[in-house]
Predict the 3D structure of the following.
Amino acid sequence: MKKSKTIYICQACGARYVQWQGQCSSCHQWQTIVKQAIDDAPIKTWADSDISSRTSKPIKIQQIATQNSPRINTGDKEFNRVLGGGIVLGSMVLIGGEPGIGKSTLLLQISLNLPQKVLYVSGEESAQQIKLRSNRIGKNENNCYVLAETKLEKIFNEIKQLLPELVVVDSIQTLTTQTVDSAASSVTQVRTCTAQLLEFAKSKNVPVILIGHITKEGHLAGPKVLEHMVDTVLLFEGDRNYSHRILRTQKNRFGPAFELGIYQMNHDGLAIVDNPSEILISQKDDQSSGYSIAVTVEGVRPLLIEVQALVSKAVYGTPQRSSTGFNGKRLNMLLAILEKRVGFSFGDKDVFVNITGGIKVEEPAIDLAVVMAVLSSYFDLSISQWVCFAAEIGLSGEIRAVPKIDARIKEAQKRGYKEFALSQYNKTSNHGNKVTLHLFDKIEKVIKHFFSP
Ligand code: TYD
Ligand code: MG
């Protein structure tokens, strides 16, 4: 008889325990540990069934032949870019995002556009639903097969017959394998299914794209090891109030991380946005206060973004600080620098900062633009709409250099901006005289330059 024993597994991080406890000692989350039966029967994997002959021997590093990893061109230049130039054969890509953001739409669209034979496995929707979506996207000639199935063994059977050149799984949390005895979307199921799909991808040199759910905190659901197992992790994000969506590389073994692709969700699928700087900046003719333009670099691409700020008298006892798209702690730090080094007082003021277009910026290079937008609202004085800012602010109020400054200046110039404020420690090459560069070393000097009459 099959012997089985029970263990307790944290559903957030995958840590294992011999007895139940309320808080996971590994990831410190509460109520995430559940009882699971595991049996001692050897786990049967894709490897056992077919390709156990895969052997590898130690080899001197000089003797390894280098070859460029062959890639599938998806025909979608944003998707190609975030992957570092197309889908690498035999690689595994995980794409996460909130429900309804458009993950299924994006991948169905890519599947429909490829001349290669694609198997689109859906555990969430029926074949009819996928057909309806493909009608919306409106691509009739394609080589895409749909399989509404959640059992991994059945999926592998179909793969063996169909021999697809790309497999899309929507979503990994819906798959189950008989080799482990726990419910769908539990840590063990997700991890085992991913491991088996990975084994298939590597051994048959067929790329697999997994769609993954994210938790309410915005992390990819399932064990953290999932992110370690796959080659590339992409995040699809955006604000529901806007139609554009941002595809971001979080990890990539075959290309640069932190690349960014921008799409717009239309009634007939996702369209590529050619000029993101234009959609991220609200076109306005009037000169209102509380706005500034920052030049940020995501991956290798410079992007102009608009920072909005509102500083108003606090009506409640504790002043409010709220920041959308920019790190709230960093905003507090910048306000503290303004108080300590320049003598402003925000103790009785509410401060709101927003990066328009639903984009999130991690880069400290937009510090100066944030401070300028805040002060513009504080003084109620507008900043010329043809100035852009790119500099980090240090704790003593110094204006610090930022990387890739030439690319930033070039983008500003291309978009018709006339002035550019940066750190005097930034080395720039000659850009002609279309943009006037303003060099600063201290925040006081920037304030004096832009706000004194
Ligand atoms: P979906 O791809 O189902 O999201 P996810 O797989 O991430 O949960 O996309 C959902 C939203 O996109 C849905 O609210 C409808 C909208 N949508 C469009 O606006 N245009 C389209 O062409 C399609 C297919 C969907
Ligand atoms: Mg979906």
